[in-house]
């Protein structure tokens, strides 16, 4: 059992996995007896600890101090300090404007899916591995999305062009679950996410924090490629994918 298996197992027992990963992990438990035994051992150990170990209780003094801290405190108002109130009102208006702008940027599609996709790409790079299904076989990766999302993306074998397939994962872009294919170009990772074509780019795409973004549409889907590859190389990847043929 790998360290990643142990981390996933503990996350599963703690209820920290999302529904899609719960189903996937339960299938692994059914197919992996040692992993299922480890789950039973951990749950039995936790149950024994809950039953046999005494629970720590707060002392009366600690309870009193916490209650005092939680109690609302009155504050004095200097009604004569009108200038102070004016400054406070101005700061409140400014804060409201900034907060409203931040909320607008967070929920507005005009914020640019490119920023959300770059953030998702960076999160994947910081994970133990950037994929949920690891395979260079498109006949393994494409069926993995079936049942998880309404529509699966095209999966093209680009190993001959220097962009081998690594696997796939599901990202959530805004509020939209989206399939992401992962390719490599030497030591560079390419995240290729398929979104509804209604979420296509609304203007020229620029590098974000050192990552380039390329976008194109194919029928009902808009494909977004994100990588720290040089822009011309990422364009070559996009051209190779667009011209590639997906087997049924």
Task: Give the helices and strands, then pairings.
Elements: H1 3-13, H2 19-31, H3 33-52, H4 60-70, H5 82-107, H6 113-126, E1 133-134, H7 138-145, E2 165-173, E3 176-185, E4 188-196, E5 212-218, E6 221-227, H8 231-243
Antiparallel strand pairs: 1-2, 2-3, 3-4, 4-6, 5-6
Helix pairs in contact: 1-3, 2-3
Structure description:
- The chain has 248 residues and is α+β, with helices and mostly antiparallel strands.
- The chain has two domains: 3-52; 110-243, 2-Layer Sandwich (Phosphorylase Kinase, domain 1).
- The protein contains eight helices and six strands; from the N terminus they run ααααααβαβββββα.
- The protein has helices at residues 3-13, 19-31, 33-52, 60-70, 82-107, 113-126, 138-145, 231-243, and strands spanning 133-134, 165-173, 176-185, 188-196, 212-218, 221-227.
- It has a six-stranded antiparallel β-sheet with strand order 1-2-3-4-6-5, sandwiched between helices.
- Helix 1 (3-13) packs across helix 3 (33-52) and helix 2 (19-31) packs across helix 3 (33-52).
- It is globular, with a radius of gyration of 25 Å.
